[in-house]
Design a protein that fits this description.
The chain has nine helices and nine strands. It has helices at 13-24, 44-50, 66-76, 96-103, 155-158, 172-181, 208-221, 229-241, 248-251, and strands spanning 3-9, 31-37, 58-60, 81-84, 90-91, 111-119, 126-130, 152-154, 188-199.
Length: 252
């Protein structure tokens, strides 16, 4: 099975080389890596050129945000499996995609997901340790979600009917997870491995305005589950409380 990795970039030169090497060095080779660049003004394109990155897998045009970029990448992709690797991030080791592919050999599996490490941009020190668990559909009502960068999903599940909702600026990944994982016939498999190292400092928590916007968009996302306002509020509280146990300083 071919795996398509989608990376959205905008002035991403600082860590982009780590990202593309992380994909290129995987032991599993039936992979296409698609870069969707929002017309960067730094050295992003030069880095891709120096790496001899396949120009056919680069989309270089303006977009309205990361979710439109990811949708463009999904539409262009040709793999049976889709994964998202943010431009600051990298795979935990060189066998990750091999492990992913092995677990899709069962026909009934629609998605595979694992664990995630958040690391400090400066020293690569682990800040958050997001260990997921076996998928239980009812857990969605209690704020559960798998780490978005650790999810690999069959392309036919997403395209063309379940793309990212571009009306959301921050929470389209959560809304997509709720929309897909809540389907009765959806079958997701948890692999208790770390898949991705994610450098801390994403858009959702870089300002007070974005924190409130994320809470609001998360609340709207829960409309997918057809639950009442009180249950939605409880779900959001539990979702955010669950993050506390991920921070390493709590266990040190």
């Amino acid at each position: 099975m071919k795996i398509s990795i989608i990376t959205a970039t905008y002035n991403s030169s600082q860590y982009l080389l780590d990202n593309i090497r992380s994909v290129a060095n995987q032991t599993y080779k039936n992979v296409e890596h698609i870069i969707v660049d929002n017309m960067s003004t730094d050295d992003t394109i030069q880095i891709l050129n120096d790496f001899n990155f396949d120009k056919n897998n680069i989309i270089y045009e303006k977009d309205t945000g990361i979710y439109q970029a990811l949708n463009k990448g999904i539409k262009k992709s040709s793999g049976e499996i889709i994964g998202i690797l943010n431009s600051d991030d990298l795979f935990e080791n060189n066998r990750i995609l091999e492990i992913i592919a092995e677990n899709f050999l069962v026909d009934s599996i629609d998605a595979v997901y694992g664990n995630l490490k958040y690391v400090n941009k400066k020293n690569n020190k682990i800040i958050r340790d997001w260990k997921s668990n076996i998928f239980n559909r009812s857990d969605l009502r209690y704020g559960w979600m798998p780490p978005h960068p650790s999810i690999f999903i069959k392309r036919k599940i997403i395209y063309p009917n379940n793309m990212y909702n571009e009306k959301f600026k921050i929470s389209a990944d959560y809304e997509l997870i709720l929309r897909i994982f809540s389907k009765k016939d959806f079958n997701a498999k948890f692999i208790n491995n770390y898949f991705v190292r994610m450098r801390i400092g994403g858009k959702s928590n870089n300002s007070l305005q974005n924190i409130f916007l994320k809470i609001y968009e998360d609340y709207l996302s829960l409309n997918t589950l057809n639950i009442n306002p009180l249950r939605k509020s409880l779900c959001l509280v539990l979702k955010n409380l669950s993050k506390l146990k991920q921070f390493t300083f709590i266990h040190s």
